[in-house]
């Protein structure tokens, strides 16, 4: 009944606002009412909220109502960010709002109609939100600068809530970076501000943020205590959305402790509250979490009902991001129940949606799921392609997992540091007494064995010399093998770096969104072929030159498509060279090609031309890469950013020369227009 009352109350509020809008006598009042309607509708009907916000912007612009224009831009940015995940469009709106608030701030005092608190709050809010967009785009340095500006403005004008929000956002960045002490410090500052100024909601949110830190680092009991405290504060304040979020967090802790039934109860309670206030995105998320808990219990029939309900609502209300997640979970449950073909259809749909929405995590999950299903249905070629794609996406997403593992390690070390120091102190004292007690015994044994030692030294010197030579030979061989393997692995990682993978997938996504399905399919096939070849060659000491140049050609084709006509290339091979008969270490030239493309293409108006030549010279094979791009000071500063792959190539060549005793080198020669890279390798023909 409480939920029904909340829904009726919300409906009544919307009806009242609509009536007031119909009766409003001036444009300023209409703008304010439209934005209030957007605020009332954005949780349950985001598209309706967009419509109200756009009408408010149009009306405010027509009426030359500057603060109304700024507010409307702020609302549109919020909706673009939270309901459509469009960071670029959100940034445009926030920048427009910031520009307007900045102009209004200059007029505060001179124009009595301006509310100084509203203006400074709008100014601070816009700066903070631009920082938040930076944070979402992983531009942390810019985000931190904007948050610091927000703190300065907030302190200057008494905007304590804004200051606390900045502290929490800075804490989130520090947590992601693995700097847990500074993350905790910022969360504590936010919580303290909330207590000092009676901002209970801020205090509750700070406790929740601290709880997520403890949960992420594996301290579930501490996280549960913080979530429970935050829950009490939000219940006292009547913040239903935050109450639901706390219940969801408690469900996550219960799930982490494998208390599945408790987790389901928490998730269901959170879902009921979210639905009651029309927060459909949150409702679908909590229902999905409940379905996951049921699936862990083996109740996949019940889980499917939850996933399908959440999916229906997410699609009907055009809630972005969630459908791909729900489809992946739905496919997994169907697969567990043995309904393989149904699971296949759903997983393929999930994969398409994940590409359209640009969600790498769901693309990875879809690829892993599809690779398993394709094996079961006998589509081995597609299974292999998806397996490769899953591996590459997993590598691209590995950074966040590493951060969490490092954070957990740091947290544990800091927590037990004091106890560890005490233990070391006691151990040192104990060791000192033990050394004194055993010294006399050791001395006696040493005197007794001296004569035996002298007699055995001669024999040990002779035998030891032989053994030392054999061990040194084995050590050097093992060292060379290990170095080769390490350099090959590093070369592989340098070639398939996450940024290249991400960019390629974004291109596929762009083709899909533009309904260029043939281009998307062609690009994806070429990308999969390149990745397969890279993975296969990374396991080999040598490949044929034909195979290595084929991989390089596929890479260049992908980059040519990405750059849209700014890149051309030519490959010339001397007529008497049989590419299939010449063996070379894989992936030696590619890092130099990549360096030219990523550091110099697009910085000039002229089209970049890469000329690759293969020549035979004095028992060597020479690979030459020449480009036509001017290398000015800016370019020379940019080049080291992507030099890791070229450094690895030089190390591999040095190791190759050390192993075979033959010439293996690379030269980078500046030219009037561009540069030339000459890679010289000993000529080795296939056996």
Walk me through the structure.
With 687 residues, the protein is an alpha+beta fold. The chain is 76% helix and 7% strand. It contains 27 helices and seven strands. The protein has helices at residues 2-23, 27-41, 46-62, 66-83, 87-107, 116-136, 140-157, 160-176, 180-196, 200-216, 220-237, 240-256, 260-276, 280-296, 300-316, 322-336, 340-357, 360-376, 380-396, 398-415, 417-495, 498-513, 517-538, 545-563, 590-600, 633-638, 644-660, and strands at 543-544, 567-573, 583-584, 608-617, 620-627, 665-671, 674-682. The protein has a five-stranded mixed beta sheet. The chain starts with a helix and ends in a 5-residue tail after the last strand.
Q: Mind summarizing the main beta sheet?
A: 5 strands, mixed
Shape: globular
Strand share of the residues? 5-15%
Structure summary, number of beta strands: 7
Mean pLDDT: 77
Strand order of the largest sheet: 2-4-5-7-6
Q: Mind telling me the C-alpha Rg?
A: 32 Å
Oligomer: single chain
Give the helix proportion (percent range): over 70%
Low-pLDDT runs of 5+ residues are: 1-9, 399-472, 475-495, 633-643
Number of helix segments? 27
What distance separates the N and C termini?
82 Å
Derived from helix and strand composition plus strand pairing, the structural class reads alpha+beta
């Amino acid at each position: 009944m409480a939920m029904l009352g909340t829904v009726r109350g919300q409906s009544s509020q919307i009806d009242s606002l609509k009536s007031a809008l119909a009766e409003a006598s001036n444009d300023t009042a209409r703008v304010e009412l439209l934005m209030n309607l957007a605020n009332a509708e954005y949780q349950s009907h985001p598209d309706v909220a967009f419509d109200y916000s756009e009408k408010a912007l149009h009306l405010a612009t027509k009426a030359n109502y500057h603060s109304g224009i700024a507010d409307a831009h702020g609302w549109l940015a919020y909706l673009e960010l939270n309901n459509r995940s469009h960071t670029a469009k959100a940034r445009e709106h926030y920048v427009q709002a910031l520009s307007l608030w900045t102009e209004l701030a200059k007029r505060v005092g001179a124009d009595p109609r301006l509310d100084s608190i509203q203006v400074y709050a709008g100014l601070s809010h816009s700066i903070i939100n631009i920082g938040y967009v930076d944070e979402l785009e992983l531009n942390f340095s810019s985000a931190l600068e904007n948050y610091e500006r927000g703190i300065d403005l907030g302190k200057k004008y008494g905007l304590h809530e804004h200051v606390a929000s900045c502290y929490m956002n800075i804490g989130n960045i520090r947590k992601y970076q693995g700097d847990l002490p500074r993350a905790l410090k910022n969360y504590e500052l936010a919580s303290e501000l909330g207590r000092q100024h009676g901002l209970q909601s801020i205090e509750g949110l700070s406790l929740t943020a601290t709880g997520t830190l403890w949960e992420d680092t594996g301290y579930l009991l501490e996280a549960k205590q913080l979530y429970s405290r935050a829950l009490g504060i939000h219940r006292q304040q009547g913040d239903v959305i935050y109450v639901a979020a706390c219940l969801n967090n408690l469900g996550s802790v219960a799930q982490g402790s494998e208390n599945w039934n408790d987790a389901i109860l928490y998730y269901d309670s959170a879902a009921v509250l979210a639905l009651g206030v029309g927060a459909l995105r949150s409702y679908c998320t909590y229902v999905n979490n409940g379905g996951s808990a049921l699936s862990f219990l083996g109740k996949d029939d019940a889980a499917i009902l939850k996933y399908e309900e959440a999916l229906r609502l997410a699609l009907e209300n055009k809630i972005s991001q969630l459908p791909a997640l729900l489809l992946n979970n739905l496919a997994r449950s169907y697969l567990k129940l043995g309904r393989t073909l149904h699971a296949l259809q759903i997983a393929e749909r999930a994969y398409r949606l994940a590409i359209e929405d640009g969600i790498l995590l769901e693309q990875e999950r879809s690829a892993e799921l599809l690779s398993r299903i394709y094996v079961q249905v006998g589509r081995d070629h597609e299974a292999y392609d998806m397996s490769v794609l899953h591996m590459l996406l997993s590598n691209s997403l590995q950074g966040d997992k590493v951060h969490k593992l490092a954070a957990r390690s740091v947290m544990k070390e800091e927590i037990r540091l004091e106890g560890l120091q005490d233990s070391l102190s006691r151990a040192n004292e104990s060791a000192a007494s033990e050394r004194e007690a055993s010294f006399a015994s050791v001395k006696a044994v040493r005197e007794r064995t001296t004569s035996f030692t002298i007699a055995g030294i001669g024999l040990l010197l002779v035998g030891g010399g032989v053994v030392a030579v054999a061990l040194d030979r084995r050590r050097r061989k093992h060292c060379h093998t290990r170095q080769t393997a390490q350099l090959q692995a590093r070369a592989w990682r340098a070639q398939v770096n996450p940024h290249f993978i991400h960019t390629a997938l974004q291109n596929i996504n762009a083709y899909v969104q533009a309904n260029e399905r043939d281009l998307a399919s062609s690009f994806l096939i070429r990308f999969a072929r390149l990745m397969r070849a890279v993975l296969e060659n990374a396991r080999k000491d040598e490949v044929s030159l034909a195979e290595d140049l084929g991989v390089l050609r596929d890479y260049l084709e992908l980059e040519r498509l990405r750059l849209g006509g700014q890149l051309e290339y030519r490959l010339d091979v001397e007529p008497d060279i049989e590419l299939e008969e010449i063996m070379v270490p894989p992936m030696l030239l590619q890092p130099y090609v990549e360096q030219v493309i990523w550091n110099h293409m697009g910085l000039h108006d002229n089209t970049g031309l890469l000329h690759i030549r293969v020549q035979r010279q004095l028992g060597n094979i020479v690979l030459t890469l020449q480009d036509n791009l001017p290398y000015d000071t800016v370019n020379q500063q940019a080049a080291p950013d992507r030099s890791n792959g070229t450094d690895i190539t030089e190390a591999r060549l040095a190791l190759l020369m050390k192993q075979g005793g033959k010439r293996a080198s690379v030269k980078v020669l500046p030219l009037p227009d561009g540069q030339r890279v000459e890679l010289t390798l000993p000529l080795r023909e296939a056996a």
